[in-house]
Design goal:
Blueprint lengths: L1 H11 L2 H29 L3 H4 L14 H11 L5 H32 L5 H11 L4 H14 L7 H8 L2 H11 L4 H9 L4 H12 L1 H17 L1 H8 L8 H9 L6 H26 L11
């Protein structure tokens, strides 16, 4: 019976519509991949091709001179390049891990525990999403300064831990978990901490993997902006902050800037490729019903 239904659907399918949809999706894919392809080609372009008019999309004479010039720039710095790399990875990894844990731990009671003013607290979380970082940067700086964390890693990590976007995302996902599942775990004698780590977190795995991508990308690419506000010591600067200084070097550093752009894209793209299969999968709780 099922085979007949499949054959009937196949016979009723229009090949012209299939071809049209394929061409449409292919065009969208090419349009979305074009910036990435151009960035990769530009990183290996010699200067004469970078400044060519009309601009060239595909490199004709690839070279690694842009990367050599970038290494020469870092060789003249009194702070080793490895120090910048360590600062970047430390802030990105610790900030992302702390944000995921704190956001998940705060979202669980908002989603599954009934207590007074729970709705009001969630409304405050939603309200905080309306304020851009440019509005909150002065209060954040005053708070960090009052805590004595200026010119330290904590000046970047503390605001990253308290980002409310992760709290909102995790809370919305946790609400989809059936209450009967949690009640059954409590009847079996499981504590709230055990329920949170052994039941809730595995179920919302797609949510916190998505949150990892957002948080890591934000900490990785916005290091130059954030560290410039709170960190003044060169030994605590991130790679992105140094790359921003290179980009301000003028037209003579156009080649190294092209190489910098490619290097800064590698980590977020790699993280997305590794986690995309888990991010797009259906939540394991989708088949459970109260």
């Amino acid at each position: 019976m099922r085979l007949k239904q499949l054959l009937r659907r196949r016979l009723n399918r229009s090949w012209s519509v299939d071809i049209l949809l394929f061409l449409l999706l292919a065009g969208v894919a090419v349009f979305m991949a074009a910036p990435l392809v151009y960035t990769v080609n530009r990183a290996f372009m010699p200067l004469d091709e970078i400044f060519a008019f009309p601009p060239r999309f595909i490199v004709r004479n690839p070279t690694v001179q842009n990367f050599k010039d970038l290494l020469n720039i870092f060789s003249d710095s009194w702070v080793p390049f490895s120090r910048y790399v360590f600062n970047t990875f430390f802030i990105a990894i610790v900030g992302t891990a702390g944000h995921v844990v704190i956001a998940s731990a705060a979202a669980y009671p908002l989603a599954k525990v009934k207590f007074p003013f729970r709705g009001a607290l969630f409304h405050l979380v939603v309200l905080s999403l309306m304020f851009t970082p440019y509005i909150t940067q002065v209060p954040n700086y005053m708070t960090i300064s009052w805590l004595g964390m200026i010119n330290s890693y904590w000046a970047i990590l503390i605001p990253a831990f308290g980002t409310t976007l992760g709290l909102y995302l995790m809370k919305q996902f946790m609400e989809q978990i059936p209450d009967a599942l949690i009640e059954a775990a409590k009847i079996d004698g499981a504590s709230e901490y055990r329920i949170f780590w052994k039941i809730v977190m595995p179920i919302v795995k797609p949510a916190w993997l998505t949150l990892i991508i957002f948080s890591l990308q934000n900490l990785w690419t916005n290091g130059s902006v954030t560290s410039h506000k709170y960190i003044y010591s060169e030994q605590l600067r991130t790679v992105d902050a140094v790359f921003g200084q290179i980009a301000n070097g003028g037209i003579a550093r156009t080649g190294p800037v092209a190489a910098v752009t490619l290097l800064m894209m590698l980590v977020p793209i790699t993280v997305f490729i590794v986690t995309q299969s888990n991010v797009i999968q259906t939540m394991s709780s989708s088949g459970l019903k109260d």
